[in-house]
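Quick question, first post here. What does this chain look like in 3D?
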Amino acid sequence: MSGKLIVMEAGDGSGKATQAALLFRRCKETGKAVRQISFPDYNSPSSALVKMYLRGEFGSEAATVNAYAASLFYAVDRFASYQKNWRKFLEDGGIVIADRYVTSNMAHQAAKITDAAARKKFLAWLCDLEYEKLALPKPDKVIFLDMPPSAAQKLIAARVRASDIHEKDGAYLERAYAAYCALANDYGWERIPCADDTLNPLPIDVIHNRIWAALERVL
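> Answer (accepted):
Ran it through. Tokens below.
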């Protein structure tokens, strides 16, 4: 690939969509060929199983659907998006900014597995599935928005739309956040602090400027 794939990751309610949109706009303003994508791709039929899962149709708690099964829902949606919408753009040298990616499966589904050895086995399976079997491109940079769940909940509470089964489960959000922190350390993701010492979310522009500074060399 001659383009760049930049991934924005964080727990639910951490402002990923806002920061991805700001990054997209800044790249456009500097004359870069850039495209913004997000997962799940709710506008595509490929996200049908994801939507059923998040609505609680397979169980009212995230843990009801095991990590392997849930990962397949998201992976198939990503494969369809890549093949239909942005593969050629990336191959031709464009910058793709993704709000969530394979890295979301790594955190959210690994959070369901408490045994360290079983979690390691799952992560190896997942990376082989998405990056090798489905041949999805690996990110050039993963930005982890480090927003503790107590701070993220303040943003979730301000939303108009209803929460999904992930966002309604506080204990699950804590486990997913812990998984994100561990993965950021293990895989060398760029960690961007997004809350102050009193666990209040930082201003949006402060977070954006930190992201831009972290990406200047890559872009």
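The longest strand covers residues 4-9.
The chain has eight helices and five strands.
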